[in-house]
Every structure is written in C-alpha cells, then in structure tokens.
Design a protein that fits this description.
single chain, mainly beta, Lipocalin, about 325 residues, twelve-stranded antiparallel barrel
C-alpha cells in the first residue's frame, strides 16, 4: 500500500476593498493540495490533498483564470503507525509520480462561478511478485480524474468567504493490469466534493494576510470491488505582500499547514487494513507575480504521519505552478 504526503498552497487575490491582491497567490492555489493532494486520485496514496488548493481560487469579482501545474513525489519509505517500518513488511517498494494539471476558473458575477481541473499522471510502480519474490517495475501514464466545481461567494461584499461544491468524475484510467487499485491513476469512482474557505488580514497595513480552507470528499458511486476511503482536508496559511520589486512586480513568501484524514478503503480489492491515515504537512513557498501572471514554487514536508498497516510515504514534495488572470 502507499500514501502520498503533500500540501497544496492557496491562490490569492485583491478584493474590491484591497483584502488580497488578485491572483497574488493564484499559483499557490494551484497546488493543496497536496491536501493534494488533493492532491485522492488513488486510494491509499493520499493525492486528494492536492485537490483542496486546486478547486476554486479566491475570486474578487467577475472574470477568469487559467493555470498549469507540475507536482512530483517519490514514495520510497515504508511506514506503519507513527514511525518508519522495515521495508520487508510491504510488498510495494516505490511509487514515483509526476502530476501534470491544467485548469480554469470563471466567475460569472460576484456571487457565482465554476472551475475545472484536468490532471495527467505519469507513474512508476515497483512491487514484489507474490509468487517469485522478484521485484518488478511498471511505468504508466494516463488522464486522471477530472474535477468540476461550482463556486458561491455571495456571503459578503468583499467576497472573503466562499463555498465550493462539485464532483470528481471517473475519467482516470483505473484498469491498468500492473497497478493495484490503490495505485491506479483513477479510482473508478464518482465523488462528491464540498468545500469552504475564508481569508482576511493579520496586520492593519494589509501586508500580512491569512486564509483557511477545507474540503470533504465522499465517494458516491464506486466499483463493485473497490471503494476509496472518504477524505477530509483542512488548510491554514499566511503570507506577506510587502516585498514589491517594482510598481507591477512583487515577491510573496507563504507558509501553509495542511491536516488530512482519510478513511479505510473498502471492497474485495480495497485492503482496509493497509489504507487510511492522518497526517500533518508544512509547506513553505514563494510566488513571483507581475501583472496578471503568477509563478509559484513550493516544497512540502510531512511533520506527522499516522498510517494504518504498512504504506509508502513521500517527503519532501515539490510543486511548480503558473497562472494567468483575465
């Protein structure tokens, strides 16, 4: 079994009352998302952490944004409970994955909008043959599970609070013969996505700001032989917007903490004894923005893990994203 560890940064904006700079953390939002994750594209690997950040970027009015992102994780350490365990206790030895995601968000007005994320994964999986004991390595790349969400931000005039709601669709490949159900690129399930966020100031001058965000993901239609566990992810972050390079360019440092819970998998191929976890990830990041263009980089570190049975974990995690608002 395997588990990804990641944190996904949130996107920023400037509200109509200068709450945040529009898209100031847009690239960051492209990422929790490692919480991401999001991020659960595959059962025990915990990719759902990525999804918390990708969903809706914090909007400040009508208009749209497009983005592209690359994430990388190398799961090569066996873990059991809260500590590292002998590699011989787990037939899986390595899951190395590059995640490529493109997406868009569009706000029709100051209250309603929609977003879509389209992932593509390239994965290398090394496991032990149960019959011979020999190691075998398999490489596979395919479309992942697409996510579509609605966005509502009509709670206040500054749009500082919002909710998201939508579906994860079973578009990813979940039938590759050499992958286990929990390492397949797609889960084969349709999942309900419900989330919420809030953002605000930490200082009167508007330089220090914060955000909190959470998401619940629940499979509602699954395969007969495999049901991925549900997942709850919470993210809190703070960033500083006082580093201006020029009138149109700035650097924004960010620090994010992600907490995630994932339930046991089900079904005849679900391995409930070796799936499910809780974890805490700290992710420092840095964004460069000029005009409507933003580039964000991040490294995530798992500071606490508690996994069921034996699962592979990865840390650090790497992310690079870019976005453009229109």
């Amino acid at each position: 079994m395997s588990i990804f560890l990641s944190g996904r940064p949130e996107a920023g904006l400037r509200s109509s009352i200068n709450l945040l700079s529009k898209g100031a953390l847009a690239a960051a939002a492209l990422g929790v998302t490692l919480l991401a994750p999001s991020l659960a594209e595959a059962c025990a690997c915990g990719c759902g952490v990525f999804d918390v950040g990708t969903g809706a970027m914090f909007p400040d009015g009508s208009g749209g944004m497009v983005f592209a992102e690359v994430d990388f994780m190398d799961q090569n350490k066996n873990w059991s409970g809260t500590s590292r365990a002998p590699a011989d206790n787990n037939a899986d030895k390595q899951v190395r994955t590059a995640f490529y995601t493109v997406g868009a968000q569009y706000m029709f007005n100051r209250s309603w909008g929609v977003s879509i994320d389209v992932p593509y994964w390239s994965r290398k999986f090394t496991t032990q043959d149960p019959d011979t004991g020999d190691l075998a390595t398999f490489d596979h790349a395919a479309l992942g599970d697409i996510r579509i969400r609605g966005i509502y931000t009509g709670f206040s005039a500054d749009m500082s609070t919002g909710i998201t709601f939508g579906l994860k669709l079973p578009t990813g490949d979940s039938t590759y013969a050499n992958f286990d159900p929990d390492t397949e690129i797609g889960t084969g399930s349709t999942d309900l996505l419900l989330g919420a966020y809030h953002q605000g100031h930490l200082s009167n001058d508007g330089h220090w700001n914060y955000y909190v965000r959470g998401q619940w993901q629940e499979p509602v239609k699954t395969k007969d032989n495999y049901r991925p566990g549900n997942e709850v992810t919470a993210v809190a972050g703070a960033y500083y917007q006082g580093l201006e390079l020029s009138s149109s360019a700035r650097i924004t440092p960010l620090l994010q903490v992600t907490a995630a819970y994932r339930g046991h998998d089900g079904g005849t191929d679900g391995h409930p004894e070796d799936s499910g976890y809780t974890r805490l990830i700290v992710s420092p990041g840095l964004e460069f923005s000029t005009g409507r263009f933003h580039v964000y980089g991040e490294v995530g570190f798992a500071v606490a893990n508690n996994v069921n049975g034996n699962q592979l974990v990865a840390s650090p995690l790497y992310r690079l994203s870019a976005s453009y608002g229109f």
